[in-house]
Amino acid sequence: MRRTGASIGAFYLLRPQEQVLHLVVVGGVPRELAEPWARVATAAPAPVADAVRENRLVWVGGQEEMARTYPRTAVALPYPLALAAVPVTGDRCWGALLLMWPGNHPPRTTRRERGHIASSSRRLARLLDEAADAGRPVTPPERPRVLAAPDTTSRPTAPEPVASQPALAAADFAERLPEGCCGLDLQGRVTYLSTRGAELLGRGAESLLGTMPWQSLPWLDDPVYEDRYRAAVLSRRPVSFTACRPPDRWLDFRLYPDASGISVRITPSRTGPRPAAGPTPDTTPEATPGREPGPDPDQPLPAAAPARAGQLYQLMHLAAALTEAVGVQDVVDLVADQIMPAFGAHGLVLSTADSGRLRITGSRGYPRHVIERLDGLPLDTRLTPAGRALATGVPSFFTHPDDMARIYPQAPLISGKQAWAFLPLIISGRPVGICVLTYDHPRPFPAEERAVLTSLAGLIAQALDRARLYDAKHQLAHGLQQALLPHTLPAVTGLSVAARYLPATRGMDIGGDFYDLIRLGSTTAAAVIGDVQGHNVSAAALMGQVRTAVHTHATAGAAPDEVLARTNRLLLDLDPGLFTTCLYAHLDLGNRRAHLVNAGHPPPLLRRPDGPAHALDVPPGPVLGVAPDAAYPVTDIPLHPGTLLALYTDGLVETAGTDIEEAITEIAAHLDEQAAEEDLEQVMAALLHHARPTHHRTDDIALMLLRARGA
């Protein structure tokens, strides 16, 4: 932080064999502001996840860029700031370093700044490597460690009596000012209050020191005011607001933050209440929110009052995340990675109602034997409160094992937990399932937290119901697709073959990519690869029809151009509303020739025994299912022993923001590097890893490698 000038810094650790980043240490903000992001899935659309997944520096230059690039994060952090996330890679990828700057930071990084960020990442990676080599690997703590605020001022090193004089002089200076002065630490606690400030607030300094103003002064108990404190801490820019001290005294508050805390200037307001403003920091007193007179200022709130502004933003963030969840496992992972840390939970059980029983679809923080004991309980079970909560639709909260044992005596013994929140998942009066958050220690559930959890349960219910429907469709389509793809490829004399299909990692996971190898004779065969438009059951079904049609016409002895022409006419008759690209290669191994035809498909890659790999120019005809009189020109090439052909679908080379021609050239160069490898499965694995090193695929991929062998 000191070298880069960042106001906030954090390190996320990626444990081996896990796909979750754990927050290990944070500096510049209180733990409470960082804990909702204590766990970030590597697949999440977040800067630290992208940095690790794509192995690159992620820079977000301002609030607008954040909203455009990471809308979910922008909802939870609606403050002007700049952000950098960089992977920490040594002997392995250790995680990501996150740095944040105030909103007045330029929207672009300088070369020197990027150099400091990169060197900080390398230095951190080296320390992690050394710790692992010494047998002391870094592991995620139960709660993130918070670094003390750095000392950014220059103070004389003098004996204690002399050193205290500047502090006394500063206090005397503040006492002489006509306005009130107050100091807050980064956690929001009052560290100093001048006499005039105490008069304006209507409370003695001794009763406010060490407390948070919005907890000790009921008339400041408003998420808008607490949000101004959050804005000051995160943006490091001055903010202001106006509040009414009952019965009718309006006060202006101006907050001036730095790395060590916040200075607050309190003055009587000359204009009274002003229209409410949003959470964006503002340095002018005119753009400030007002509120109506509140309750008696002499009655403080309980110290356990939660930070509502943070929870409101976190709730919006979680709502946005839940709308992006696709399958049931996505919902489980999101609840575990984001909702559990946000509410400090140590355990999770997410169950769905199925045929009168509660089937556990996901859990965290429980040993296997406990999950096996709880799985499949009847909906009317008296073993735990889950059945009753689901039947009544009313959440149940148990703050202590004794509370649970009075009604459900076996439940604490089975789970070993100390506090529970049972959240029924209901949609239009229909039970979907139940979400249970558990804790290793007794804890209260304040009324506002219960309200937030109850609202969140409704969002989880909607997401879980959509996810179950998606999974059902997915299983149907996946089963259909697997049934239509070839289970094994035939052996052909003089030919080595390897083929693989990989579904997309996001979305429906089902596409229309297909491949086939058709044995036509003892030394002849046909290789076909294609891509049906779409990622759904219809695409999978049409893929099966296209593959069957090609197989039928090929085995009937049709010439290569006629195989595609007849398949094209069939698709026009079927009128599925989808088009198909296809590449067909007739392999005559006896005469050492290959005849290729192309229906709008990416060009194959060819590597001859004596030459580099390159994209083979096969003039394409129209895609299948569009033009009734389409013609498909035939390209003849020699097929000498050692010749390697690579047929693939666009998922291998097509990525948003990249030129497909350059991507094809790059894959061809990598194929050239691997061509000496005898095992085509190894060649295929290397090509797939090169094309998608993070295993993150937005489209499905089909790849077939064919190598002519000698007699």
Can you describe this structure?
With 711 residues, the chain is an alpha+beta fold. The protein has 4 domains: 8-147, Beta-Lactamase; 169-300, 2-Layer Sandwich (Beta-Lactamase); 325-477, Beta-Lactamase, CATH 3.30.450.40; 488-708, PPM-type phosphatase domain (Phosphatase 2c, domain 1). It has 21 helices and 29 strands. Strands 1, 2, 3, 4, 5, 6 and 7 form a 7-stranded mixed sheet that branches. Strands 15-14-13-18-17-16 form a 6-stranded antiparallel sheet, with helices on both faces. Strands 20, 21, 22, 23, 26 and 27 form a 6-stranded mixed sheet that branches. A hairpin with a 2-residue loop joins β17 (419-427) and β18. The longest helix is centred in the middle third of the chain and has 38 residues, at 447-484. It is elongated, with a radius of gyration of 32 Å. 43% of the residues are buried. The model is unreliable at 151-163 and 274-307 (pLDDT under 50).
